[in-house]
Write a structure and sequence with these properties.
Layout lengths: L1 E8 L13 H10 L4 E7 L5 H11 L2 E2 L2 E5 L5 E5 L3 H12 L9 H4 L3 E3 L5 E4 L12 H10 L3 E4 L9 H4 L12 E2 L16 E2 L16 E3 L5 H8 L5
Parallel strand pairs: 1-2, 2-3, 2-4, 9-10
Antiparallel strand pairs: 1-11, 4-5, 5-8, 6-7
Length: about 230
């Protein structure tokens, strides 16, 4: 069956995420747009996933738990897990590799941890968009070791896409898929062997995708979505 997906959305935990990107607003917009599956992938943290999952379950929207890592090279890499608990545990491991640079709220904005009622329960003090002390291939290996899926983010867009950050796709890592943007020119590399994902990378509610990208899955479940992305690694 075909499932309408947006697998790269930021919440108000990400310093670049709008303050209106709360669990209820994100899931509510996905519900209105008739999306089957969303992935909230905040920078280097999974702390808003429990609240998003609680709301998503109430609205019958599937949540694929994820994060967006910033590697030592300043390249962005998505990771996905089957459960919020697995993603949270991996997030704790990643947090230890985040430099102790405090967030400047006046410049970057508040990094809000929310509950399922859209109430702030904490504010992250470390600047989450900082680069980890882990290289691109190290991050990929850690993701797979933890049972997750590794998907280099928006490879052909922005200075943090791997093709712009490094100039090439490292051959020493394994990728379950690649995220590409159709809004800019496709990269001059052969992508035929890779599974390609298209997502919004939404930082504002209005940027969340309409039903325009679909995954073919054997059923409507998070495990089926996970398997549809990671049926094989490259």
């Amino acid at each position: 069956m075909k499932l309408a997906c947006d697998l790269h959305i930021h919440s108000c935990l990400s310093p670049c995420g709008d303050g209106l990107m709360t669990p209820n607003n994100i899931v509510g917009m996905a519900f209105i747009k008739q999306l089957d599956v969303i992935a909230v992938c905040d920078h280097n943290s999974a702390r808003n996933l429990p609240a998003v999952k609680e709301v998503a379950d109430m609205m019958n929207v599937l949540l694929l738990p994820g994060m967006e890592l910033t590697t030592r090279e300043e390249a962005h890499m998505l990771c996905y897990f089957r459960t919020v608990e697995e993603c949270m545990a991996f997030g704790e491991r990643i947090y230890a590799h985040l430099p102790p640079i405090p967030n400047n709220e006046k410049f970057f904005g508040r990094q809000q941890v929310m509950n399922a009622q859209d109430e702030e329960i904490a504010a992250e003090e470390k600047l989450l968009i900082s680069a980890l002390d882990l290289g691109f291939e190290e991050c990929a290996a850690m993701i797979h070791e933890a049972g997750g899926l590794c998907v280099p983010a928006h490879i052909n867009r922005g200075s943090n896409g791997v093709l712009n950050a490094l100039g090439f796709l490292p051959a020493g890592a394994h990728y379950d898929a690649l995220e590409v943007s159709r809004k800019v020119a496709m990269p001059p590399v052969d992508l035929k062997e890779f599974r390609l994902l298209e997502s919004s990378d939404a930082h504002y509610l209005e940027n969340i995708l309409e039903p325009e990208f679909f995954l073919e899955a054997y059923e409507r479940s998070v495990n089926a979505v996970f398997d549809a992305i990671g049926g094989s690694s490259f």
